[in-house]
Amino acid sequence: MTADPGEFLNAAGAFLRLEPARNTVLLTATEGFRARRGTAGTGGAAAPAAPAGPGAAPLFGWWDQGTVGAAFLHTPPFPVVLTAMGPEVAAALAAELAGRPLAGVNANDDAAGAFAGAWARRTGAAVRVHRRMRLFRLAALAPPGRPEGGPRVAGDTDRDVLCRWYGAFEAEVHETGGDAAAEVGDRLGYGGLTLWEAAGVPVSFAGVSRQVAGMVRVGPVYTPPGLRGRGYAGAVTAEVSRAAVAAGAGEVLLYTDLANPTSNALYQRIGYRAVEDRLVLAFGC
Prior knowledge:
The chain contains eight helices and eleven strands. By secondary structure, it is an alpha+beta fold. An eleven-stranded mixed sheet has the order 1-2-3-4-11-5-10-9-8-7-6, with helices on both faces. The longest helix is centred in the middle third of the chain and has 15 residues, at 109-123.
């Protein structure tokens, strides 16, 4: 385990790049940390928000038995994110992280269940399902009908509205605790936010990660409630997906909440196809 993203990528980067789509969160988040520290790297997603509180520093780790076979990332206050790993490895990791404040775990079903079971036995924490997610990969882009207006890459003058919308998005998906201003600032720095404007007024936005291992991940995508149902989210998602392909991304990915049939249907209509499902379990009293 290490708090140094460079050390982590030196040890586990080749393993993560074997399946960049399935390891998208670890790759983009870790590369984002390196980019924000000013170290060399190929670039990744905006770094997770700087955590606060005792014992809350980001932590990276890998399972090495001669070769790396699994890895994890924990950036409080968010759940620990696991690569594919056997249930016995996940349970052992829970024991190794004892004493660290964990809000939950994000993994495939078997690993999530094994980790959560071991954590509950050790800490007495209650476990509940927070979210079921599906990873999608762009196959062939099929842009939806074009709504009123058009896209533009966001700039510094858009910072205030984007920070408000980031906060609203996090509240809506129950992922509070991030630093919206830091996230927006980082993504503005590499052109990672695109607005859809109608009559000169921003009506929706989509974010993208930096490209890493030939892969870009779309998200978040947000339209204020009063402006929904007009095609803005689909249009801005299609635009950032097109731009990512034009910039050389070999894989364009996004996650959806399986409890939201609208977004799942929308992304499939514009050309995304399912890759895998993940389970997010929350720990509580």
